[in-house]
Amino acid sequence: MTGTLTPLPATFSSPLVGRLPALVTASPEAERTITHAPYTGEPLADLPVSTPEDVADAFVRARRAQERWAEVPVRERARILLRFHDLVLERQDQALDLMQAENGKTRRDAFLEVSDIAITARYYARGAASLLGPKRRRGAIPVLTHTTELRHPKGVVTVISPWNYPLSMAAGDAIPALLAGNAVVQKPDTQTALTALWALDLMREAGLPTDVWQMVVGRGSSIGDALLTGADYVMFTGSTASGRRIARTAGERLIGASLELGGKNAMVVLADADVAKAADGAVAACFPSAGQLCVSIERLYVAEEIREEFVAAFVARTRQLKLGAAFDFSVDVGSLTTAAQLDTVTSHIADAVDKGATVLAGGKARPDVGPLFHEPTILADVTPEMTLFAQETFGPVVSIYSFRTESEAVALANATSYGLNASVWSRDGARGRAVAARLHAGTVNVNEAFAAAWGSVDAPMGGMGDSGLGRRHGADGLLKYTEPQTVAHQRLQGFTPPKSIDHERWSRVLTGALKTLRAVGAR
């Protein structure tokens, strides 16, 4: 598994990269921070660092801008998002270069983010007017009570996005918040801030007013409190530990929060599965973005009847993967993003091997390819005392186990505090869906790894248990950024009796009316 390093593409010698840091909301005298390219370890971006005062200023300007933005008709907001959609597709090579340089992923993995953002922008732009428009609701008294549900923007939304999917998580969560009429103050991870700033740049070119979406850069320990203090709603993607802290603060402030957190996702290969397809699916499930994907698979459960055949096929395919650094589509697996992530991967594997795990494929860091590369790794004989048995590794590592019955497979897959994503493989679609419905996970894919559920943007996506709160995608992904309001107009007769009828008689009248409604099947 080798690859040839390609020098940084022309994007990084263009004016684009030179001006993106200027989009960060920070004072002219701000301190600077340097990011480094995962492929080589060389310096990559020079970014200003925002202070808590800068964040507070961003919220002041965002609130002023939001009042005006909320008055823009929804269909006009949607037109801006559709222009953004077109710009993302037209200039995708810039985004691909940025994501690869900052994150270390392959170009094919980076392209999935481009397509994801195009799909998300189109879906919400086409559906926002219907989702946000006034809805007639059944009134308390038929005909006499005219009831309407309205949707108002929350105000200013804080979005805190991670480094592993720097375009999908940055722009993907901002899009519905903006369409709902909110302003957004966002903290992308510093390592991948250029990609988020690129999205911001395109959105402003598409017509978004300047202060409606702002970016700040800095460590959570420095500006995290300011981001939560100013927010009317928080969208966070990251670790479960950080999510708990954010949830506590949001609860104290009585504001809403949506949290997509960690996962220890399971794939179940039933005895009737097509082994070749399941082995291909396991590769796609475990190693995209070097395993740094919240919905990727880290636990693989295989029916005993086909275990030997499956393991042989999966190991063979994994060993054939091309590991490398190239700004084209020639490699299969890229680099880890940070030294800390490489340390986690190597320590988890070393701990497992020391305690008796068997390495079936990979198992080693590859500094000959680049400073943060690690081979895709398959482990067997993993037991509960090993760190990676229950803890999320977030790297190109998967453990294989076996089972005898479907009920045992379901119990093993559900034996975790997490519940983000899962995968089931069977030749019988109905059987696969029945097993999927028994799994404790927010999304479950049948005969697919994660892309089917993630790409079904009309359906909600999110976690159960320690994997988080709330949902992105679907109606929930937009409406969570709104405050519902009920307006009920009572006409003619209300709920108090007219002066000519006493309360006792009035109660009998209402009792008769309620019985009549029950009899005619009214809701």
Brief summary of the model shown:
This protein is an alpha/beta fold and 523 residues long. 42% of the residues lie in helices and 19% in strands.
How is this structure best described in words?
There is one protein chain. This protein is of the alpha/beta class. Helices cover 42% and strands 19% of the residues. The chain has 18 helices and 20 strands. The strands form 5 sheets. The chain has a 7-stranded mixed beta sheet, with helices on both faces. A 6-stranded mixed beta sheet has the order 7-6-5-8-9-19, sandwiched between helices. It is globular, with a radius of gyration of 26 Å. The termini are far apart.
Helix and strand layout, with pairings?
Elements: H1 15-19, E1 32-36, E2 43-48, H2 52-70, H3 74-90, H4 92-103, H5 107-132, E3 135-137, E4 145-153, E5 156-161, H6 168-179, E6 183-188, H7 193-206, E7 213-215, H8 220-229, E8 233-237, H9 240-253, E9 256-260, E10 265-269, H10 275-286, E11 297-303, H11 307-319, H12 339-354, E12 358-361, E13 377-380, H13 387-390, E14 397-403, H14 406-413, E15 418-419, E16 421-425, H15 429-436, E17 443-446, H16 451-455, E18 464-465, E19 468-469, H17 474-479, E20 482-490, H18 503-519
Helix pairs in contact: 2-8, 3-5, 3-7, 4-5, 4-7, 5-6, 10-11
What are the main properties of this structure?
18 helices; alpha/beta; 7-stranded mixed β-sheet; 523 residues
Q: Give the overall pLDDT as a whole number.
A: 96
Helix content: 40-55%
Query: What is the 3D shape?
Result: globular
Taking the sheet with the most strands, its summary is:
7 strands, mixed
Class derived from helix and strand content:
alpha/beta
Regions with little confidence, pLDDT below 50 for 5+ residues: 1-5
Sheet-strand content, in percent, reads: 15-25%
Oligomer: single chain
How much is the radius of gyration in Å? 26 Å
**Number of distinct beta strands:** 20
What's the arrangement of strands in the largest beta sheet?
A: 12-13-14-11-10-16-17
Number of helices: 18
- How far is it from the N-terminal to the C-terminal residue, by CA? 64 Å
